[in-house]
Amino acid sequence: MIRRQEVTQKELDERLARSxxxxxxPYYQIGEVFQPVxxxxxxDKEGRALLAFVSHYKATGHVxxxxxxxxxxxxxxxxxxxxxxxxxxxVIFEQQLSGHSWLLRGLCEHFExxxxxxxxxxxxxxxxxxxxxTTGRYAGYPIxxxxxxxxxxxxxxxxxxxxxxxxxSTDVGCAFMxxxxxxxxxxxxxxxxxxxxxxxxxxxxxxxxxxxxxxxxHCTLTAARGMLRMYDVTExxxxxxxxxxxxxxxxxxxxxxxxxxxxxxxxxxxxxTEPCAIVDSLMVSGELYKITGKDMYRRCAAxxxxxxxxSAQRPNGxxxxxxVVFINVDGYEDVDTLRLxxxxxxxxxxMRLAEGLWYAxxxxxxxxxxxxxxGDGRMMTIHDGFGRYMCGDLVxxxxxVPDGADTNGWTLPAPTVTVDGHVLAPLITYYDKTDxxxxxxxxxxxxx
Length: 448
Prior knowledge:
10% strand; alpha+beta
């Protein structure tokens, strides 16, 4: 017997309310929303914050005051061309391009909602003065890297070296994040120069071996969303093909882990997951379903929501990184237990989550999970191609808390099914638990 597990409006309303509460706290308000001069990711926090504010407006109609305040104060924090950080020169600063892609997205979304003159002027100016001068340079993006250098990088990423005219990042390939922001600019302006630049970036990035380069999965999936936007605007199937290729590589080429979260960098299970990329994967798979009608994409989106995003949102409404769950990767020890690694990544993931919640709210009917039960109501389990215990679309795990951990009286829910001597249940969500529970909860994914 097949049962459908819907995403309830109650759950989405609660998730959105917690996210909004977090985004109304001081770190995202006008006193702190702008990064200091010399920030390593110019325009990134500001752009993600603006996009998050607009996403909440679109989802709930609520206006977070900093949305207008940020735009009003922006000229005082930028140069005359309305972008952040150093003046563009012959060395391309890829973290500056990456950060300003989020600024472009926020400006574009704000313009589409409010048709204001400043957002349009700003997105045109940033494109004209920061991005268009880079045209013709992307074929020279350095791909011959020191293997040891490709194993570096923290949660926030940082600049590592100037090489062949590029100031490179540990978030490998993040310059190509800009396919997303620039595709949105093209959607609004229809500027042929912008399309030519986007096409150049897509051609180059699609030709790069992302697994060997250890490209960041977040920037790659974000680029794929930009490709899908270009398909939506132009109906040229080449963009759809590029996006499908990226998503297939992500799912089947060591980009996605065993609980439908991501590896921060391709093929590196010694790292962490990143809710920014989980949101991107949800949106890419959902849009591929709507374009192609193929249920495998809808089912993947549902699995990402019910498994991958189960633990990503924290009780405070923000989002943080988890352990990667992965086995059978050459050169790495197997990791089978899902646990919280960092409580929150407020500088990126907590803001990025807002657009993901907007997307889920808009597409709630597509995200149902299917489970299977016997006639007497017992959950049926299978071992899928990865050897995981699953019930339909849901990953089953053995939940526990370490001895001596204080959960303030919270107890584990009753197991759903016992299989091969293991008591298993679908992954437990974090957003509706207490901090004390989220911090100590462990969920062991069993592989046959």
